[in-house]
Amino acid sequence: MGLRIIEEGLLTTIQDLGRFGYQSSGFSVSGPMDSWAMQLANIIVNNDPSEAVLEMSFIGPSITFEDYSIISLTGADMSPKINDKAVENGKPLAVKAGDTLQLRTAKNGIHSYLAVKGGLDLPEFLNSKSTSLKVAVGGLHGRKLDVGDSLAIKFPTHGKTFNWRLSSRLFDYIKQDHLIIRFIEGRQYDWFTEQSKQKFMADSYSTTTQSDRMGYRLKGSPLYFKNDGQLLTEGTTFGTVQVPANGQPIILMADRQPTGGYPKIGQIIHADLPKLSQTRPSRTLTFQKCSLSEADFLMRKGQQQLDQLQTFSKLKWKEWEPCTQSI
């Protein structure tokens, strides 16, 4: 008993923080596109931040709950309703058996996250529950969720009214009009002409409709190499900016291939990956170079903020626990 998909949406998959340590064996890391929103969804319901959630893209599903649960929604605003009554992102929401959560087309951004208190009761594959669509492993049979699919919840929990929520400012990055994406130099940065390096930072690029969880294809000023150097295949990471022969950059995303052979002009910094992941097709963005030390500082600052929010949430749940009843 847990939750059941009654309308599938466009692309709903199960994701935790990813399948690390197996790229050398040919398995993608996968995991969430927006790890910030995903972890906040878990923090709100007092789960471990790495617990598996539902990642819902562009158009959300409709879900009927078959037991008492406490859930949270973060990321893109999909106009959520429970039993036709509007509810808010960013707060704990109590549901009971028979309640239906309805999600629609994202108003902004792409990816929304649904966490369930206690987590989803699913087996792990190579230490992760993340769905890897390319090789059909993890999650529920390695595929997106379809109508009729049921997922068990580890610890169904009664809930009462909650009067707190996270600040909506935590998700302002999804609504930004002018997107500046920061990067550090890639391993083959010096392979590119000086003019191409300047164009990469001075000109705007737009994401194309060919973009998906594997990579975001960009359209803009083509980038050229100084010469036709040969590159051995190298390991890839989330946010690597590869440049194929046509000169149009490709940013590798969560379901990226384990290795790649295109020269890399840049690496998107960790702090800007959530903002990048929520960029809709045809949106324009500008690249800005930053130092490794600045990228490290911003990553640590983000983690510190997550830790503080988790402490806040734990205190709120400690106040609430005397009123709970596990079933």
UniProtKB/TrEMBL annotation:
Coiled-coil segments on the chain, per record: none
Which Pfam families does its entry note? CT_A_B (PF02626)
Keyword Manganese in record: no
User: Residue limits of the Carboxyltransferase domain?
Assistant: 24-305
Please give the Gene Ontology molecular function terms for this protein: ATP binding; hydrolase activity; lyase activity
Q: Does the keyword Iron apply?
A: no
Q: Which UniProt keywords apply?
A: ATP-binding, Hydrolase, Lyase, Nucleotide-binding
Q: What is this protein called?
A: 5-oxoprolinase/urea amidolyase family protein
